[in-house]
Amino acid sequence: MGRSRIQIQILPERHFPEKVNLVMSKSLAQKLGIRTQPFWVTYGSATSTGVLALHSNQSSLIRMSNQLASHLLMTNQTSIYAHFDPYLPRLRLGPLLGVLINTDLQIKGNQDHNFGIMTKFLDECAVAGQSQGVRIAVFEPDHIHLNTQSIRCWVKEKGKWVQQIIPFPDVIYNRITSRRVEQQAILQQKLDHLKRVYHIPIFNEKFLNKYQVHKILLQDEYVSKMLPDTVPFSILDLKKMVKKHPVLYVKPNNGSLGSGIIRITKAPAKWIMQSATPNGTLTRTTKNLTELTQLLKKRIGKQTYLIQQGLQLIRYDQRQVDFRVLAQKNRHGRWHITSSVGRIANDQHIVSNLASGGTVRKANDVLNDLKNIPNKPTVQQLRKTALDICNAFEKLTEGQHYAELGIDLAIDQTGKIWLIEINSKPSKTDDSVISPTILIRPSVTQLMNYVSYLFHKDQQKSHSPPTSTPTPILYKTRGRKSK
């Protein structure tokens, strides 16, 4: 089995010998191990038959006929991998990565195809993909067409995002940021079809439910010791929890970005209820628990909420601080820590999320500035803890495919590490990047590494061609006129 980084140039049939639809150098064919033909040619889920002619020049360029390219829904490629399996035989071109996004990211009617808050991240993906031989295609749920086995998408060509039709990709990365969109029945049916029929890996396939994650991690002896006391919201459980903990957090079970979080504090002769709002913290006081529960019931309505133990956490300049550790699968398919940052709350907010006006600094710098903390963990300990959590979570959620997790950790005043949350859709906005001048953030490079791993690790995927013998396709050729 041979593999090589190549370029593809698509030309009219008149440039090819009769019955031939591919031309490459002898040296490239040798490197790929092509010794027999015809053979299958695949690009994503598309399959056709290849018949090869060789030339003696040294080159990594493969010339492809228009008709073959049309069958594969292929366009000119300046950087992609070719992998030849002599046992099928098959020439596989890719990887083709599909990035699934919301339908409401302000791309309709925009000449530049601005993807809203995802624009810079997707631009970086296109650049990184080009340098690593990964073809990037961005698409919406409505653009998956099962009947034609194709997707209408955006790809970056000559610095601009343009629309193209592609086959189903080799890998799909779910970057939908709306639970409502993600849970739509028609989308779930499409994704299930792509996984079940075409065996396409789809990673970070869904949002995580906070309480489900809590119950899952309680099964791990090591991780369970880091979990704050957490129960589903009810008035009965609220009365029990206020007796156990002086501070409680009431948070949406399916919330994100710190939205909807409420802090309850027991003070002498009163209760303090503080809510996170876009403009700061709204504070209400009540004289008794009955009045507090009425306020909470009105605030929560029919939404599903949790009650979580409040912790005596370390503070940075009198502000709340926690740590986001980004873990990703690497080029070997194993969990790896890509980055770790300290998130410092705005002095007007009860949460540290960047969406609520928090700031971000390198985790090591924040830890170095924190003084008089007994048993203060190092950044290496935080990263190892996050890695252990990822491995435990993956083991306990076998069958679910995650390749990127945001692990939110906090440190209490005794130096103990707590797990606050696991996030399956870590932020990709510009303000989450510590070094905004960097061309490609490390998380994007790691993403390309993992996609390449998935593409190359299993060459027997059933969205590739059948194992029967390929039959040559007789293309009409336009021969040169004889003189």
Automatic annotation (TrEMBL):
Report if keyword ATP-binding is assigned. yes
Print the keywords alphabetically: ATP-binding, Ligase, Nucleotide-binding
A GO cellular component annotation here is: cytoplasm
Q: What is this protein called?
A: Glutathione synthase/RimK-type ligase-like ATP-grasp enzyme
InterPro entries to which the protein is assigned, alphabetical: ATP-grasp, YheC/D
The cross-references to Gene3D superfamilies, in alphabetical order and at most eight, read: ATP-grasp fold, B domain (3.30.470.20)
Q: Which GO terms describe its molecular function?
A: ATP binding; coenzyme F420-2 alpha-glutamyl ligase activity; metal ion binding
Biased composition of type Low complexity is found at 462-472
Map out region (Disordered) in residue numbers.
Answer: 458-483
Question: Where is each ATP-grasp domain found?
Answer: 220-453
Q: Which PANTHER family has this protein been placed in? A: COENZYME GAMMA-F420-2:ALPHA-L-GLUTAMATE LIGASE, RIBOSOMAL PROTEIN S6 MODIFICATION PROTEIN
